[in-house]
Amino acid sequence: MAGVRILGSSKVRARHDDSLPPSSSTHLTFFDVWWLPLQPVKTVLLYPDAAISPALFDSFKSSLSRILPRFYLLVGDLTYQPTTGEVTIVCSNESGVTVIEAESDLDIRCLAGDPKHNMDSFFKLVPDVAHEELPGPILSVQFTRFSCGGVAVGIALHHVAMDATGQYKFIGGWAKTCCDGSVPSGLNILHDQVPEYGRA
């Protein structure tokens, strides 16, 4: 039966940047905590014509490492603080994003083109994150190679750290970094493209 097989996982850390703090703890506002019980937002990007090679996966991970300093909270973990009863996003030098590598004998063109989508198949292409337990990751990623050719990038992103607009900017910046080999200059220059983490 067609399915997905997990090959392994690794942790991708944000590439060193002097602007990054050695550690940080960002508390959630009243409006943020409403999202805590909900599952992460799941996104699947399908690339039927991508040429599969070890270099592709290496580029995928290295570009993620380059873009993460601009979206630093994504490397963190949702963590319960027993002394205050709060949940915070904790980041440190050891924090990172879990990246799962998988392979599948599903037909990527059917997944992308069938008018009636098989949701069970799509869910297999996204990391299975236990959101009911803390600490828990903000971001997890799955990279799936298809035996018939093509790849899928599955993203599980907790809504407490980023809304849809932020996710769009993150994915767009990551994709451009992967293609060009460097972080888009717009993420450094345009204020509206740099995430704001102030919680005052």
CATH topology: Chloramphenicol Acetyltransferase
Largest sheet: 5 strands, mixed
Distance between the termini: 52 Å
The radius of gyration over CA amounts to: 17 Å
By CATH, the superfamily comes out as: Chloramphenicol acetyltransferase-like domain
Supply the CATH architecture. Answer: 2-Layer Sandwich
Word description of this protein:
This protein has 200 residues and is an alpha+beta fold. It has a single domain, classed as Chloramphenicol Acetyltransferase. The chain has helices at 30-33, 54-67, 108-113, 119-123, 164-180, 186-189; strands at 4-12, 23-27, 41-47, 77-81, 86-92, 97-104, 136-137, 139-146, 151-157. Strands 1-6-8-9-3 form a 5-stranded mixed β-sheet. The chain has a 4-stranded antiparallel β-sheet with strand order 2-5-4-7, with no helix packed on it. Helix 2 (54-67) packs across helix 5. The longest helix has 17 residues, at 164-180. Mean pLDDT is 83; it is low at 188-194.
What attributes does this structure have?
9 strands, alpha+beta, four-stranded antiparallel sheet, 200 residues
Please outline what is shown here:
The protein has 6 helices and 9 strands. By secondary structure, it is an alpha+beta fold.
